[in-house]
Amino acid sequence: MFRFAHLRRFVPACFFALGVLSSSVAQCTADDLELLCNEGEAINGVVFDCGFSCFLSNDVTACFQDCIQSGVPAMSTGCVTCFAEQSTCVTNNCFFACAFGSEADCEACVQANCQAGFETCAGIVDADADGESNVCDCNDNDATAYPGAPPTAEGVDNNCDGLIGEDEALPVIGCPSDLNADLMVSIADLLLLLSEFGCIEGCSADINGDGQVAVSDVLELLSSFGEPC
């Protein structure tokens, strides 16, 4: 779950009003979520630094917004607003817990007062309840797909690396040279291959998967000729 860096160790100031995140519609775009996933630590650092810069400002939220936008120019204005409002919420509700308490005290206060509102504002959800939010989850509608997920051999990119690995792919039934699916590599398969020999697009007899039917496919078929699948 993405969390902003908690604003800690401020010089004492008097912020007692309850801060409420006002945005109820998701403000962070898909590009923003990708940015949060890839650059989360750097963004945390910007938010942390803005906390020190803005806590004595006459308009804390506006200061946070300008500071965060300047530090993370690639982030959309709407998403920056969510961070600014969350930072204000922390200042208003958790100043003493985060300035003088333990990290656990600060974490608990932020979680209780500001985290849910921030996630609603930003549009951060875990729709498939797999423990990974849509910030880094490549498919938040599939509980078997998330960074570091084990393979399921169902043709799904389980670990979200952008590839379907060998242990994630569907198991091969039969053998590639059995073109007519009769569980035997025979003359019938060779005839099917020869009927497509020279094909360079959409080839059903492309045994080796190189996009064409050529001599290499004939040789591969002949290497298993007469074998059951």
What does this structure look like?
The chain has 229 residues and is mostly helical. It has three domains: 30-122, no CATH class; 137-171, no CATH class; 172-229, Type 1 dockerin domain (Orthogonal Bundle), CATH 1.10.1330.10. Helices cover 43% and strands 0% of the residues. It contains seven helices and no strands. The model is unreliable at 1-23 (pLDDT under 50).
Offer a few descriptive terms.
0% strand; mainly alpha; elongated; Type 1 dockerin domain; 3 domains; 229 residues; 7 helices
Secondary structure elements and pairings:
Layout: H1 30-38, H2 40-54, H3 60-71, H4 77-100, H5 103-122, H6 187-195, H7 215-223
Helix tally equals 7
**What shape does the CA trace take?**
elongated
When the domains are counted, the total is: 3
Order of helices and strands: HHHHHHH
Strand content: under 5%
Approximate helicity band:
40-55%
| SSE class | mainly alpha
**Largest sheet features:** none
The whole-angstrom Rg is 28 Å
Show unreliable segments.
1-23
Distance between the termini: 47 Å
Overall number of strands:
0
Mean pLDDT: 86
